[in-house]
Amino acid sequence: MAKRLSLTEIDQTLAALPGWKLDGKFIVKKYRFREFLSGVAFVNEIAELSEEKNHHPFIAIDYKLVTLRLTSWNAGGLTDMDVALAENYDVLYEKYKGK
Amino acid sequence: MAKRLSLTEIDQTLAALPGWKLDGKFIVKKYRFREFLSGVAFVNEIAELSEEKNHHPFIAIDYKLVTLRLTSWNAGGLTDMDVALAENYDVLYEKYKGK
To answer: Which keywords has UniProt assigned to this entry (chains A, B) (predicted)?
Structure first.
């Protein structure tokens, strides 16, 4: 099982992840899209990746705004897996920026 | 523009829509799935229908639980459009029950 990150580690991590914020046991980011269906396409990529990694974020689609929320239930908080996925999501988003 | 439903009309409507609940200016329903990706496939169908009708619900995907939340912003509350879409969502869900 992945080790839970300390508050110091979380602070350092968030400093390197623009747009991600700490919210209790979660890290959260909101992604904006020009078109509703671009946000949906982004969510489909996130979903495929989640299944592959067996690590699922909470996803909200509020019209052209997609919110992703990550935590590691089995560790009772944030782990390296959440950080790695947050980085992956940001990379995937590059494709959809302005779309 | 569609006419806003009265509270009496909303009550009558909800009586005929199992699982849908009133929450302020919204009606809300939670749909359960056996597999995460079945919920995502359901959301894709909802998204296509939303674009077609130009009426978008708020969507949350919390692992195998999908929550849909409808209102008519331009009417400041619930209209026949929300009721029609809620019925459509329930029909779409039939395909995914137990999946």
So the answer is: Lyase
In a domain, residue B23? The reply is: yes
In a domain, A42, yes or no: yes
pLDDT on residue B2: 80
What is the residue-averaged pLDDT of chain B?
Answer: 95
CB atoms within 10 A of CB A26: 17
Please give the model's pTM, rounded to 2 decimal places: 0.96
Exposed/middle/buried for B5, CB within 10 Å: 0-12, 13-18, 19+?
Answer: buried
Domain of residue B17, residue span: 7-94
Give yes or no for B16 touching A (CB within 8 A).
no
Q: State the complex-level ipTM.
A: 0.95
In terms of CA atoms, which chain B residue is nearest residue A69? B62
